[in-house]
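Q: What would this chain look like folded?
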Amino acid sequence: MAAKTLIIDGKQVSAQDDATILDAATDAGIKIPTLCHLGGVYDVGACRLCLVEVAGAKKLFSACTTRVAEGMEVHTDTERLRKYRRMTLELLFAERNHVCSVCVSNGKCELQTLAWQNGMEHVGYDYSFPRWGVDATHHLFGLDHNRCVLCQRCVRVCWHIEGAGTKNVAGRGARSAIIDDLKQPWGDSETCTSCGKCVLACPTGALFNKGSTVGEMSRDLNKLEYIVNARLKKQWIALE
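A: My prediction, written as structure tokens:
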């Protein structure tokens, strides 16, 4: 497979021709903020936090879905990008009810960490304070729509790692929500295998283990990537 040479933040980088800008930057040790990206599943460019500038183009590109090109010159950390990222983070906080002090993922939340890393000191937009509920019908897990950022990571791992196809997205715009099967209570789902991969994939406190209290939810995303790689390389250990 041919390699492409490009420049990212003034650094010459080589990448496979099917690599994304995010892949190339990560391999080169250049950090680009992401929220909806998850190793082991395909990218959808939902969060828009990984936007980058490409020389010669007026619009911004999502690093996770844009393929590299020969001679491409990419900028990942400009004042324009910092402004857009802070705006995106503020909108995410304003759209739903993220109360970090009483969240199960407080201190271990990717949204919270990104806000701190990108200098978000306050929210400059009016809070929507929508009336979202909590689905606690599953015997092991819970879904708090108030803390969901619609990154769709849970949907992608459910379909493409577990293969159950339980979770999906319904609705449009601000009324979009994660659903189970045909929008029924999670505990009534006949397709859910109770594997917990969706809970592992969630970047916030939206999906949680029942019984978790403030700051107790921790996740190891390496487990999901390990499952995918082991499956592709046929590394499973057969039980006798």
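The longest strand covers residues 3-8.
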